[in-house]
Amino acid sequence: METTISPNSPHLPIKGDLARTLALVACMAAIAGAALWQATMGFRVISTEEGRRLAIAEAPLALPRVDLALPGGAAVPLPALLANDRRPAIVTFFYARCSAVCSVQGTELQQMQREILARGLQHKLRLLTISFDPRDSLDDLAHYASRMRAEAAVWQFASVPDAGQRLDLLEQVGIIVLPAELGEFQHNAAFHIVRPDGRLAQVIDYEQPEIALAAALELAR
């Protein structure tokens, strides 16, 4: 006996459903591709940190007006601190209790300070290290500066007492700070080259202090 299968049988592929599925897959692929294009800035970068550095290099970023507290001094707005003596700055972010990447970066800054003083460049550029840890008091920063043998004319330490301003600064610059065990933090680290007008012009890996120093000197010229 011949068996007739109805067109509505579930055993037969339904062309309409297949077409809709393929269209949905194509749409999802297009959306994913567009998101990847945007996230990688046109496939030019492969990480968020690379994207941050490329964006700043292409369009220098105006730093927000946040009030910095410095050991032994009054609160000073960040742009004013940078603009007062017209020196470009190499800015870093840290917390005084850090025993990992901050220590490495601090050692590089020590060597950078020695190089600046040895070459008589202290009137041409400056170092500024800003704490993002609300637990860091001005006494903590002064103690850390003493331990690092920081020369105040070259290398200053500061905190941002206002929590809202601190978060705004970190967000705009692109500093990611995540709580970790034992009161520590995980965070990205780099040398931030800032023009005298308060615009962040370049971000350089913390393992490349020579390049950071050369970039700051180029701005000084």
Write a brief caption for the model.
The protein has 221 residues and is an alpha+beta fold. It has helices at 15-39, 48-58, 78-83, 101-118, 138-147, 163-173, 209-220, and strands at residues 61-62, 67-68, 76-77, 89-94, 126-131, 155-159, 177-179, 185-187, 190-194, 199-205.
Explain what this protein looks like in three dimensions.
By secondary structure, this protein is an alpha+beta fold. It is 42% helix and 19% strand. It is built from seven helices and ten strands. The protein has helices at residues 15-39, 48-58, 78-83, 101-118, 138-147, 163-173, 209-220; strands at residues 61-62, 67-68, 76-77, 89-94, 126-131, 155-159, 177-179, 185-187, 190-194, 199-205. Strands 1-10-9-4-5-6 form a six-stranded mixed β-sheet, sandwiched between helices. It has a two-stranded antiparallel sheet with strand order 2-3. A two-stranded antiparallel ribbon has the order 7-8. The longest helix is centred in the N-terminal third of the chain and has 25 residues, at 15-39. It is globular. Residues 32-46 have low confidence and may be disordered.
